[in-house]
Write a structure and sequence with these properties.
about 90 residues, mainly alpha, 4 helices, about 65% helix, elongated
Length: about 90
């Protein structure tokens, strides 16, 4: 839950600023070595979890999204062409 997700009634009762540990309190932001190490470990984990087939999964997702969004248009076109063909013949 982030600070913006807290209901307004709770926020209104907070006296003064919330003491976040990541707050720079108006000074330049400085990252500690443990924070940078944790971020690097997380990014490496995300990169390695993609696997070899990641690009194919992205392509599959894009194709399925396109096909799903154009399914009814295709059905209507097939029915219209079939009806037109039967009417002409």
């Amino acid at each position: 839950m982030t600070y913006t997700d807290i209901p307004l009634t709770i926020v209104a009762t907070v006296a003064g600023p919330v003491p976040w540990s990541t707050s720079s309190r108006g000074s330049p932001v400085l990252f500690s070595p443990p924070e940078l190490a944790a971020l690097a470990a997380h990014l490496a984990s995300c990169y390695h979890s993609r696997g070899r087939m990641f690009d194919l999964r992205l392509l599959d997702e894009a194709i399925r999204g396109f096909a799903a969004s154009h399914f009814m248009t295709g059905v209507v076109l097939i029915v219209a062409i079939s009806a037109l063909t039967c009417w002409i013949a």
